[in-house]
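hey can u run this one w/ pyridoxal-5'-phosphate bound, need the structure tokens asap thx
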Amino acid sequence: MKLYNSKTQEQVSFVQAVKLGLGRERGLFCPSFIPIFTNMDELLEMPFVIRNQKIIRSFIEDEIGGSKVDELVRKSFTFLPRLVRATPRMFALELYHGPTFAFKDYGARFMAQCLSLLAGKEKITILTATSGDTGAAVADAFYGLSNIRVVILYPKNKISPLQEKLFCTLGKNIETLAVNGDFDICQSLVKAAFEDEELKNKLKLNSANSINFSRLLAQICYYFEGVARFREFYGNKILPVVSVPCGNFGNITAGFYAKALGLPIKRFVATTNANDTVPRFLQTSKWEPHKTIATITNAMDVSEPSNWERVVEHFNKMLVHAIGNNWQMNEGNIQGISISDAQTIAAMKALHKNGYVAEPHTAIASCGLSKSLKADEAGIFLSTAHPAKFKEIIEQTLGIQIFLPEKLELASKKKILSIDFNPSFEELKKYLLA
Ligand SMILES: *Cc1c(COP(=O)(O)O)cnc(C)c1O
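ok here u go:
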């Protein structure tokens, strides 16, 4: 497949895009072309893994071969999304049944499998900083891949104990450094390492970062599963409105790719918390990021979402390709809605009244959906994290007890294997080369 750099227009292959992550001048790699499926009914009837093989083959079979794609998909998609009716017309697409109980497992696992395949016999080093959640998804996704060494830096005592247990107890090829400092210091150490020629060349450093294009390919797949299950309730009569809880806007970008592939979705609701740069942009056409505001949905506390550039590129390209859809960036295709913390809490309570327990990020998506739905419509909200990951706030808000899934319970009893680390680049370099 061909992709282009959003800043320089240079073309790259899928393999290059995965290895590079980010393009020159900090450009994002965007698909030059999106195929379209004409046999949608047939595709939606297929089992999850088989269907995903078809979808991902349509992008990268030409480059890495069909049987390799099938293997990548089989190894990555080891857990199913579930569509659960939460209210009479709103369905939760639960994406959190993976190893670290968050939807990021889908993107992270597929990216890890791609990098491992592309590295072949070479040994590469993944170096990354985390303020919590992404660390767990990345560590778990790469765990046990013998040609990949993973080094994760995180701010000591500044992430939740449960988060720390999830990714600092694994061992094997996963090394974790507890840095005496904050997240910004961790990030600047990682950045310095990527600017060091000796490290870059000797260790074949890769950041496996959140804007890697491979993640999006994986995320396209669960939208198909959501629509397939939705059809069991409504047939082809009602197309779902889909509400996505947006932070960096990677998730919703994959949604737009899914729709371009031909997936019947009525419109998207880009639901944000108080960090409402995109909803304001959709109203006023002015891009005016404010200072980031801390909310109870901290995975969505982003005021300058990097993937938004991909959404803009996509709408521009799709208008040109004219594939029969109306790809104007208007309310018929994408609606932006911002939800306050108070509304988030109210939405958690409203869902619970209907018998559905949601953590705050999921509740935001449900709130955006209920504001958007008209009387004759029905829809899907994406459920991005397991309630147990936000146990405290749910227990406080709903007055119920949340039990940890067995795997979290087991992890919470394991020993932390992290090494205490002083924030010095020289020491980091010594450590990495040792
Ligand atoms: C990362 C994350 C989001 C936001 O997803 P983006 O792809 O960054 O828009 C939403 N909810 C949870 C729980 C997350 O971890």
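The radius of gyration is 21 Å. anyway lmk if its weird
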